[in-house]
Amino acid sequence: MKNFKVEAEGAEFDFVTMHVREVRLFQVYVQHEGVTLRFHMQKNEEGDFKIMDKDHCPEQYHIAEDLLSKAIKIYGGEERKPAAV
Fold first, then answer.
1. What SS3 class is residue 8?
2. pLDDT tens-digit map of 41-74
3. CA distance 11 to 55
4. How far is Cα 22 from Cα 33, in angstroms, rounded to an integer?
5. What radius of gyration, in Å, describes the C-alpha atoms of the chain?
6. Which residue from 84, 71, 85, 57 is spatially nearest to 23, judged by alpha carbons?
7. For residue 6, what are the contacts with CB-CB under 8 A and spacing of at least 6?
8. pTM, whole model, 2 decimals?
9. DSSP track, 11-73
10. Residues with Cβ within 8 Å of residue 57, at least 6 apart in sequence
11. What pLDDT was estimated at residue 82?
């Protein structure tokens, strides 16, 4: 599991993992109107990551939820591609 940053919807999102054995929960930080906001994204039963506290995430970024979920799967360590042989 690792921390990472990704850009979406004109903003930079900073993902901080909350688990070390399995990718399940991230704190996500984003600058909005000059203030750093924090919200959480957690894995659901289907394996997708959802914004858990939408009242802490600016509404304009709610539409990026699927994109942010994919970013976690790729950059957070969940979908690692095997090394070429």
1. strand
2. 999 999 999 999 899 999 999 999 999 999 999 9
3. 18
4. 33
5. 13
6. 71
7. 12, 13, 15, 68, 71, 75
8. 0.83
9. EEEEEEES-SSS--EEEEEEEETTEEEEEEEEE-TTS-EEES-GGGS-GGGGGGHHHHHHHHH
10. 28, 30, 37, 39, 51
11. 47
66: which residues sit within 8 A by CB, 6+ positions away? 48
DSSP state of 2: -
Could you tell me the two tokens for 51?
């914004």
Write down the residue that tokens 């991230």 correspond to.
26
Which tokens in the block code for residue 66? 């699927």
Alpha carbon distance 38, 44 (integer Å): 19
Tokens found for residue 29:
């930080």
